[in-house]
Design goal:
alpha/beta, Rossmann fold, two-stranded antiparallel ribbon, 11 strands, globular, disordered C terminus, binds S-adenosylmethionine
């Protein structure tokens, strides 16, 4: 996905993933993070499963995958889950998952509206997993999903979410992308840096904004990961991405006992969550796993 002049709206995501993208390797065509780390793709993929899925997915548990595409990670989730729930904006992606995982017991699939999770799941899910998908989704929809994740997670449940991480101060400048390629280039340079040859259609989200939105939804941030493995051999360093691990407190008072500091966000682009008064949860904790 080279274009970076398009907004990260629900309709653009639907068009890109439901119609335009060819899905030549059913998601395994996205080898960029492995290349950036300088490791073979299969090794990198195994590290994602080992570091980001296995520790949070008890055998037989209920797992919800948000935006599975053609099921690149679903294979691993399916081997661990008792009940597996797949939710995607794209009808074509859900059809492909139904075909690929046909016959699997306790599989539920949903085409959604791009911002909410199915009703009737309150406090039933042990793990919400989303990788390489919300990186393209606007902050307003991410805020909505974080509230929904809080609703469906059982107390003590986890969410492992891969998201964009542009420089925080540049977020309000995101609309300049739509003015044309030179403006999109400038925005990439300011928000991600020159070391990147493309901006990967990342949305206007920083780790700080993600943390703020998670707190607003009542979720606690356990860690933000950029790299993991020996000497940070693996990770999601391309486009400066992060994977954030969230937990729904067993006792919701545990979250409110540690109130995030109130700060004012810079004037925001239209799709940044509505309130101008937002809270940040202290320093970003960067972790080498
Ligand atoms: C780049 S693909 C990644 C698919 C898969 N997670 C993987 O890693 O191979 C992005 C996926 O996110 C889905 N998606 C995009 N925006 C969405 C939204 N707002 N809500 C739900 N799914 C969305 C797309 O339909 C597509 O399946």
């Amino acid at each position: 996905m080279k274009s970076c002049t398009r907004a990260n709206s629900i309709s653009e995501n639907l068009s890109v993933w439901n119609q335009e993208h060819a899905w030549l390797e059913h998601g395994d065509e996205w080898k960029g993070q492995a290349d950036f780390c300088g490791v073979p793709y299969d090794e990198w993929k195994a590290s994602v499963i080992e570091r980001l899925i296995t520790p949070y997915a008890r055998s037989g548990s209920t797992i919800l995958e948000l935006a599975p595409g053609h099921g690149r990670w679903t294979e691993a989730l399916a081997s661990l889950a008792g009940r597996l729930i797949l939710v995607d904006l794209s009808p074509a992606c859900i059809e492909e998952c139904q075909r690929r995982f046909n016959g699997r017991k306790r599989l539920e699939t949903f085409v959604n509206d791009g911002k909410s999770l199915p009703p009737g799941l309150d406090c039933q899910v042990d793990l919400v997993w989303s990788f390489d998908s919300l990186v393209h989704v606007a902050p307003g929809e991410i805020q909505s999903y974080l509230h929904e994740i809080h609703r469906v997670l059982r107390p003590g449940g986890f969410a492992v979410i891969h998201h964009a991480n542009r420089r925080h101060w540049t977020l309000p400048l995101a609309p300049i992308r739509s003015l044309g390629p030179s403006w999109a280039f400038l925005y990439r340079y300011l928000s991600i840096g020159f070391e990147e040859s493309a901006d990967g259609w990342r949305s206007a989200v920083s780790v700080k904004l993600f943390r703020t939105m998670a707190h607003r939804a009542g979720l606690s941030v356990m860690e933000h990961l950029s790299r993991w493995g020996n000497n940070g051999r693996y990770g999601v360093p391309r486009h400066n991405d992060r994977v954030t691990i969230l937990v729904k407190a067993r006792d919701d008072r545990a979250v409110s006992q540690d109130p995030p500091k109130e700060q004012r966000l810079p004037t925001s682009e239209a799709d940044v969550p509505t309130s101008s008064q937002m809270s940040y949860g202290g320093q970003d904790k960067e972790v080498l796993g």
